[in-house]
């Protein structure tokens, strides 16, 4: 199984899961990758994995994201929905500054309560 984009919260990383038999046939250096595990990206991936392993994470995940998207837009932050409308997609430009990212995090955090009472997808 291959994994990529969401593994590190959108940072460039990829992973391959194999059976023990396949893993035993691969030696160090047999496989290279553009997205091999740099320390920053691996730290982000660990944070993502720790979050999604929390029992409460998946229990409340399947809700429509449009109220959050609307609240963010009203606060001058543009985010999109993806999937069946239950995924929030962040698409900052490559030239985004750290200050702009921090402001976006503040707005996004302030808008999260707009999801309260949202009806789960059927």
Automatic annotation (TrEMBL):
Coiled-coil regions listed in the entry: none
Alphabetized UniProt keyword annotations: Aminotransferase, Pyridoxal phosphate, Transferase
Keyword match Ribosomal protein: no
CC per GO annotation: chloroplast stroma
Protein name stated in the entry: Acetylornithine aminotransferase
Protein's UniProt keywords contain Cell division: no
GO molecular function, one term: pyridoxal phosphate binding
Lineage: superkingdom: Eukaryota
PANTHER family: ACETYLORNITHINE AMINOTRANSFERASE, MITOCHONDRIAL, AMINOTRANSFERASE CLASS III
Cofactor entry: pyridoxal 5'-phosphate
Organism field: Musa troglodytarum
Entry's family note: Belongs to the class-III pyridoxal-phosphate-dependent aminotransferase family.
Pfam families: Aminotran_3
